[in-house]
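stage 2 :: seqdesign
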């Protein structure tokens, strides 16, 4: 789920991964394996560090590379905007709406 919400902030993720915005899916909520999708998009990066860090080396097992988690954390901390993501993800929009409602009932 997290990766679908990252994919929903299309412009920011494309810029961060150094790929064209067109490389990102239009409907991130419909992606069956969003983490795999993020890794596959990272494979198309113009930056070697992103390609090699986020994707597993050829012949190695696993879904993602050794720098997947720190790279995703850096994206979230520096560029991801949940409000922008909510414009492209109905699930994200509903989650934010539920959090706002919960906050209002607690005050």
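stage 2 :: out
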């Amino acid at each position: 789920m997290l990766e679908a919400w990252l994919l929903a902030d299309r412009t920011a993720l494309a810029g961060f991964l150094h790929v064209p915005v067109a490389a990102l899916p239009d409907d991130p909520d419909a992606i069956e394996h969003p983490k795999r999708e993020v890794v596959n998009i990272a494979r198309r990066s113009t930056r070697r560090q992103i390609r090699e860090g986020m994707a597993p080396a050829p012949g190695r097992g696993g879904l993602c590379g050794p720098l997947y988690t720190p790279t995703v954390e850096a994206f979230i901390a520096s560029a991801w905007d949940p409000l922008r993501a909510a414009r492209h993800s109905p699930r994200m929009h509903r989650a934010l709406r539920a959090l706002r409602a919960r906050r209002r009932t607690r005050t």
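stage 3 :: structure notes
- Residues 90-106 form the longest helix (17 residues).
- DSSP finds seven helices and no strands in the chain.
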